[in-house]
Amino acid sequence: MGQRLNYAKAAPAGYNALDALDTYVENCALEPLLKELVRMRASQLNGCAYCLDMHSKDARAQGETEQRLYGLTAWREAPYYSPRERAALLWTEEITLIGETHASDAVYEEVREHFTDEELVNLTLAIITINAWNRLAVSFRSQPGHYKSSKKPVIAAESMG
Fold first, then answer.
1. Is residue 117 part of a domain?
2. Model confidence over 38-57: pLDDT tens digits?
3. Cα separation, 29 vs 56, whole angstroms
4. Range of 115's domain?
């Protein structure tokens, strides 16, 4: 099935508002690769092929390893994610599936150990933003496979395994 419509052209003001939030998230102090892992995990949960294509390319361009990208769906069993990354992935699942989880107190307290107040808000905004992009891309059938990353390499991710 092809793309249903171009949502950026159909509602440019709405698109620009979401893009402004995305720009804020992109420029916040959270680690670039942490943000890409969050974007990938939410996109996996939401079944967004377009965003998975985009963010896997962006993550690799910034030095993320294939091993960590491939292991992301089983992050709980994989030894190569830091405690902070694990907390971010746990929060990503909690917020992405909020209708089921209701952002439980237990998970919140676990995640709080790894993030300052500002970082936790920024992490939550990153999760909210990718969920919004996922819903636009899936709803209007954005076509994966054509994205080219413009990200500049940051620091190569280190494997703990």
1. yes
2. 999 999 999 999 999 999 99
3. 21
4. 22-139
